[in-house]
Amino acid sequence: MEKIVRTLRCKNANIPGTLGKLATAIGKVGIDIGNIATVHLGPHYTIRDIDVFAETEEQLAQAIREVSRLKEVSVLQVRDAVLEFHKNGKIKMISTVPITSLDTLRKVYTPGVAQVCRLIESQPSWKDTYTSIPLSVAIVTDGTAILGLGDIGPVAGMPVMEGKAALLQQLVGVSGIPILLNIKDSDEIVETVKHIASTFGGIQLEDIASPRCFYIEDRLVQELNIPVMHDDQKGTAVVTLAALLNACKLTKVALQEAKIGVIGLGAAGLSIGKFLLKYTGNPVLGTARTEASTKRHAEAGGIPSNLDEIMQKADIVIATTGVRGLIDPGKVRKGQIIFALSNPYPEITPEAARAAGAILAADGRSVNNLLGYPGIWRGTLDAKAGKINYDMLKAAALAIAGAAAEGELVPSAIDPKVHLAVTHAVARAAVESGLAQRQLDDDYFASAD
Questions:
Q1: How many CB atoms lie within 10 A of CB 303?
Q2: Cα gap 145→219, rounded to integer Å
């Protein structure tokens, strides 16, 4: 169950033992305590912010009542830290050139900018030098498959798109620009993206429901001369393979010989099945709610199956259904590797899977797209590749797996070194597979070696 996160701002009398009493009162109702930060330290009292993680609103209210009973403590505020982080959005456009004088203004705007416009008009390739286009990616959604929330619309999905954009900028220096499309017709989406594509160096399709996402990506890949990637497909597959490589290393399971089953054959599940088939050479068992999804899996080389058969026969089980608690712990076979990747609620928690006999289990919090898409994009854009092919995605997976410390399934998703390694691996693969349109010298790759 997803925790309710709140910050309690408490005024504590400067009497020895007060903080201990406060912590005991919170723990008494079964609530976990996170960060404790001192806001004010005075001669008579101290004000502290205490992050708490509750299972329910009632449990949170009970904790506040317990704390309020302490005569040495006053609860000043109960704040929602998550909402506070999102206030006014998480991204903004800023200038890379400080405009602090009329001389600078004349260079970056009028009349100086006309010179640059004329240059690009005569030789369009100069856009890669004198505009932000080559390091900009459109993050396009129609809001039909947002996170684990479903069809909540493009505007409600904006916080997710902003998060993707913020991470692209922070981790690899790529500008992600959310594009919210209030349309659901697949052909209209394709045409709209084609019309705006000249603004960007790449197109990231995000949270578009299956099966429309397959058609939309396929058409855009064919019809645009810039790279297109549906992150829920390619990004998920890359990080899943990376995690599986290390999972097999940790458990002494031979991935090439293991029987793999995928539960859920939407955007993520179908792509994972196809990617693992190409990597291992072995078809993957797959099951889905609809016959159409199962048929697509079979057409891609997979083997149609069902939930019970997968739980009985598969050495590795990967679930991407979005159905919370779908996997009954009683069906877990001893020694299985289980990845229940639906966010925010997995099909089975790692703790429950391990308790039921799984040798290793993980969920979407660790096996997360964030490990893949930033470096995939930066490497692709650095190489100026017009497409993202299998070799580039495979290189990304191997780089992620190789960046994990001994005993780890995957590395930290906010470690800049991981994203640099993925960036250089993808760029190198683009060069070696003949897709790179930009020369990358030894100095470029030196920082990753």
A1: 18
A2: 20
For residue 412 the two structure tokens come to: 């930290």
- 353: Cβ contacts below 8 Å, ≥ 6 apart: 327, 329, 332, 336, 338, 340, 361
Q: What is the pLDDT of residues 68-119, one digit of tens each?
A: 999 999 999 999 988 988 999 999 999 999 999 999 999 999 999 999 999 9
227-284 per-position pLDDT tens digit: 999 999 999 999 999 999 999 999 999 999 999 999 999 999 999 999 999 999 999 9
Burial (0-12, 13-18, 19+ Cβ within 10 Å), 441: exposed
Tokens 């609620």 -> residue: 345
| The model's pTM | 0.90
Catalytic entry in 3, 28, 71, 109: 109
Is residue 164 annotated as part of the catalytic site, yes or no? yes
What span, in angstroms and rounded, lies between the C-alpha atoms of 282 and 274?
10
Calculate what percentage of the chain has a pLDDT beyond 70: 99
Cα four-point dihedral sign 416, 422, 426, 428:
positive
pLDDT digit string, tens, across residues 184-220: 999 999 999 999 999 999 999 999 999 999 999 999 9
Q: Please, is 351 exposed, middle or buried when counting C-beta atoms within 10 Å of its C-beta (0-12, 13-18, 19+)?
A: exposed
Look at residue 149 in the predicted model and tell me its pLDDT. Answer: 85
Q: Which of 164, 274, 384, 394 is catalytic?
A: 164
Contact, 347 vs 329, CB < 8 A? no
Tell me what pLDDT residue 117 has.
97
CA trace torsion 111, 116, 118, 124 (10° rounding): -160
Compute the radius of gyration of the chain from its Cα atoms.
25
What span, in angstroms and rounded, lies between the C-alpha atoms of 371 and 328? 29
Contact call for residues 304 and 298 (beta carbons, < 8 A): yes
Q: In degrees rounded to 5, what are phi and psi of residue 339? A: -110, 105
Residue range 280-327, pLDDT digits in tens: 999 999 999 999 999 999 999 999 999 999 999 999 999 999 899 999
Largest CA distance in the chain: 77
Active site residue 444: no
